[in-house]
UniProtKB/TrEMBL annotation:
SUPFAM superfamilies reported in the protein's UniProt record: Cryptochrome/photolyase FAD-binding domain (SSF48173), Cryptochrome/photolyase, N-terminal domain (SSF52425)
Gene coding for it: phrA_3
Species in which this protein is naturally found: mine drainage metagenome
Keyword Iron-sulfur appears in the UniProt entry: no
GO biological process: nucleobase-containing compound metabolic process; response to stress
Residue spans crossing the bilayer: none
Keyword Lyase: yes
Lineage: unclassified sequences, metagenomes, ecological metagenomes
Keywords: Chromophore, FAD, Flavoprotein, Lyase
Coiled-coil intervals: none
InterPro entries the record matches: Crypto/Photolyase_FAD-like_sf, Crypto/Photolyase_N_sf, Cryptochr/Photolyase_FAD-bd, Cryptochrome/DNA_photolyase_1, DNA_photolyase_1_CS_C, DNA_photolyase_N, Rossmann-like_a/b/a_fold
Protein name: Deoxyribodipyrimidine photo-lyase
GO molecular-function term, one example from the UniProt record: DNA binding
Matching PANTHER family: CRYPTOCHROME, CRYPTOCHROME CIRCADIAN CLOCK 5 ISOFORM X1
Length: 486
DNA sequence: TGAAATGTTGGGGCG
DNA sequence: ACGCCCCAACATTTC
């Protein structure tokens, strides 16, 4: 008796290498049917945003192309995951569904229901870990609870065994002639109707091949200087792997293995502060999933509950929020970051911290507004990392920057973009200003501004808030929160 | 993975 | 020669 087909349900693991669900499906022996289900309703209030959908479209296209080369296709459908899986089981004669786990609250609830429903019908339903070095359930502090501070968390993780990438799998993919008819990828409507994402295609190569090349390029040219260069946004020192990691075009075990193999001869690993630092950034991603799993309400609510009553500023017509979103705050380093985000779907990490601090402290607008904007505009939008990042910036999360730690956007610009190269890249109207005043054009003398073609209030805005007063107001708001009668 | 305010120290100008 | 003061440089504290 021959083995029935297996449905391999792709979600945020859009790769064929290091794919434990795929390896297990291949080991079953029957043919494997690759399936992707577009099910935004199943994501709670966090359906992929516009930039993520752009990436997803192209990543699915790449996965489909890889499967075509193997004589099959990616079977694409949209609708409720459980219903679609049921239909595909019937249409293909499959008796098993394998997938790699997700860890977002809505996905956990949905997947658990699907798994028990399938099992009740006698379907072999199994899930695997493809996307984390350390699953949240497997890491506990001495008291048996979740870690809430990164350094002890990561130290503990580094004492644990890291699994090797999954074995390569060459399954018998179900041939195109036997596949049910798939929906066209275009029918999912993932691409924007207006082509605001034009620059995305010049910036990114979604898909497993692109991810592999990005890792190789980073390891070859960047990782050794990563520890020092990573803070300077004009140096291009980032790995730029965040979106590939989010969509699972590459897995953290592959990254780990790549660096381990790099030091095979010496046996010393990690071998440099650059490698350690880069792995620690992978560790922050792990920590973000750890926190999201154990504190599932944090995408909406501060982990430190007292911050729910923070006295945010009034912005009745949304003018402040709009200026921030569009990169028109009058602070060049902030505006450059917001424009890089809008143009490319990505922002350098140092600059993410600066713009987040500015929104939450200088404008005193709720961090949730920033998280939502990032969610819609980042190609790497990831519920765990986004939530951690914003709660960190707002001072209301685990191991967060204290609220009183307020970035001075001028000093941050002068420290990390001394020549103004980053600012000039994203704010061309300031490109002719000398470095000495690029981060504070409002202090430049009229002649300098004129010869640079800058007219404050017209070609580039004046600061929408005064730094000193905004800082004082932020500290006063924190004080008000502390003194609030409880 | 801050910044600003405040405190301390020590060199040098100067009466 | 000496004490006083200024202030830059650095350290510490506070937000």
């Amino acid at each position: 008796m021959s083995t029935a087909p297996t449905l391999l349900w792709f979600r945020q693991d859009l790769r064929l290498e290091d794919n434990p669900a795929l390896s297990a499906a291949a080991a079953r022996g029957g043919v494997v049917v690759a399936v992707y289900i577009w099910d935004p309703e199943g994501e709670g209030s966090w359906a992929p945003g516009a930039a993520s959908r752009w990436w997803l479209h192209h990543s699915l296209t790449a996965l489909d192309a890889a499967l075509r080369r193997a004589g099959s296709r990616l079977l694409v459908r949209s609708g409720a995951s459980e219903r679609v899986l049921g239909e595909l089981l019937a249409a293909t004669g499959a008796d098993a569904v394998y997938w790699n786990r997700r860890y977002e609250p809505a996905a956990i609830a949905r997947d658990a229901a699907i798994k028990s429903g399938l099992k009740a019908r006698g379907v072999d339903a199994r899930s695997f870990n493809a996307s984390l070095l350390f699953e949240p359930t497997g890491v506990k502090n001495r008291q048996g609870g979740p870690f809430q501070v990164f350094t002890p968390y990561w130290r503990h993780c580094l004492s644990l065994e890291v699994e090797r990438p999954a074995a390569a799998a060459r399954p018998d993919w179900m041939p195109v002639s036997r596949l049910p008819v798939a929906d066209a990828l275009e029918s999912l409507g993932l691409l924007p109707t207006l082509d605001w994402a034009a620059a995305f295609g010049r910036t990114w190569v979604p898909g497993e091949d692109g991810a592999r090349k990005a890792l190789e390029a980073f390891v070859a040219a960047r990782v050794d200087t990563y520890a020092t260069d990573r803070d300077f946004p004009s140096l291009g020192a980032s790995s730029r792997l965040s979106a590939a990691l989010h969509f699972g075009e590459i897995g953290p075990r592959q990254i780990w293995e790549r660096l381990r193999a790099r030091n095979e001869e010496t046996g010393v690993f990690p071998a440099s502060v650059g490698e350690s630092r880069f792995l620690a950034e992978v560790g922050w991603r792990e920590f973000a999933y750890h926190l999201l799993f154990h504190f599932p309400r944090t995408p909406e609510a501060p982990l430190r509950g007292e911050y729910a009553a923070f006295p945010w500023a009034d912005d009745p017509e949304g003018k402040l929020l709009r200026a921030w979103r569009r990169g028109r705050t009058g602070y060049p380093i902030v505006d450059a970051g917001m424009r890089e985000l809008w143009t490319t779907g990505w922002m350098h990490n140092r600059v993410r911290m600066i713009v987040a601090s500015f929104l939450v402290k200088h404008l005193r607008l709720p961090w949730q507004e920033g998280a939502r904007w990032f969610w819609d505009t980042l190609v790497d939008a990831d519920l765990a990392s986004n939530t951690l990042g914003w709660q960190w910036s707002a001072g209301c999360g685990a191991d967060a920057a204290p609220y009183f730690r307020i970035f001075n956007p001028v000093l941050q610009g002068e420290k990390f973009d001394a020549e103004g190269r980053y600012v000039k890249t994203w704010i061309p109207e300031l490109a002719r200003l000398p470095a000495s005043c690029i981060h504070r054009p409002w202090e430049a003398d009229p002649g300098t501004l004129a010869s640079a073609g800058v007219e404050l209030g017209r070609t580039y805005p004046r600061p929408i808030v005064d730094h000193v007063r905004a800082r004082q107001a932020a500290l006063a708001a924190l004080q008000a929160l502390k003194e609030r009668p409880s």
